[in-house]
């Protein structure tokens, strides 16, 4: 018979193993208790708004979900569970997200001053030249000075009026481009996304440094590669600014650059500067040669960069690049995104498209293009604009705000140094405000006095308050003029073989929520070609 008894050595080894195991179990149990205590104390602070549970180190970063889903959508789903004011610990950053009109009013109006700053994130460091641009600068004297220059030199009502001729010229070039492309492509299928984006980048190039970047009538002297690089930079910038970069939330992991964000930001630097730096240097030389500063253009304007260079402003090249990038990026992608979403929805709703074109026929007729002055007489077009901005706000989470001091929101305590997001997307789709909120229905605005200037907190595409979009009075006429002319000049239909109901509305991830896939559409002239082509 086999002897199963253990020897003395084996007994010792066995009992030492048992002791090790017990010690391990004890440690694990204590760790769990400690973790629960820490999390309990974090998560049980009833003075803070509700939100997903926070874990040590990562906080509730996990709740942002996959990177392929736009954060505005994810936050909208979470707001259904936690309510219109939610609190997250994203890594080490306390973060609040407001998702209805009442909370947005509290944040942007009652606590406008408290939330007037911006958090310091990697994108602001690199794109914003150490947070010196208007978009990324924290509140304080520098921000106030830059925003004043910005609104005074570029976006005052008088300046916006002076730029009307440029808007018309660029809208016309867009129409000619669409016409030519429809002639060259099979079945008249045109990549609308690409043409509208280029048109708006051209427009911003003209107001910032008097140069058109793309197309036959490009006037920039930079090599085409530099122009393409800049375009790539603009598109990449809006994507990267919208990402939740782990290094911003868990500073200890920043050096690992887990998502490759910092690496991408550094790689983009030459694309960002290759075009702008030589232009600024050219302006500096001109400014030295011209006593009394820059000459006005025939239309009474001064280029934006010229004004910044010659203003005795003492602004460095970096400061000027930062502000130029604000305008080039902020002004081009958002406006073209609004246009592409309008056309997407009109292709999906042929009855609305027809109503818009009938209105254009009766107000404008078919023997001329739409002019800016016509837009005030196109009520249905204005309804389409509001409805598009409600359903598809180009900047759906605005740009994160940052609080200087403790305050209360919806009765909850919000600690100082909290990052705040206004979920403009959720507000536009709030069933408590809007009937059938996910349905595209421009007539809901027919007799409505609601406007998009930041006074009505249920429709906030340009946000509101101190950090509200300074470009609104420029963006709206541009958007309306481009859209009205595209609808007026062309018959629109989905590409052959695609049913209008199947036109997709998938959204891209980024600070600007554009279409994920380029908008392709079949276009044929609706008014005589010579009217479209005439200067
Ligand atoms: C349809 C077009 C546009 C939309 C929907 C839009 C929307 C927005 C939104 C939501 C913000 C964030 C406000 C906040 O953080 O509370 C913003 C900021 C900004 N926008 Fe626009 N924008 C558009 C066009 C423009 C244009 C054309 C320009 C310049 C010419 C511009 C320049 C800026 C700047 C500089 C900021 C930062 C303001 C600050 O931090 O104080 N935007 N925009």
From TrEMBL:
A GO MF term: heme binding
Name of the protein in its database record: Cytochrome P450
UniProt keyword Iron, yes or no: yes
InterPro entries noted in UniProt: Cyt_P450, Cyt_P450_CS, Cyt_P450_E_grp-I, Cyt_P450_sf
Positions contributing to heme binding: 469
Cofactor(s) annotated in UniProt: heme
Similarity field: Belongs to the cytochrome P450 family.
SUPFAM superfamilies for this protein: Cytochrome P450
GO cellular component, one term: membrane
Keywords (A to Z) from UniProt: Heme, Iron, Metal-binding, Monooxygenase, Oxidoreductase
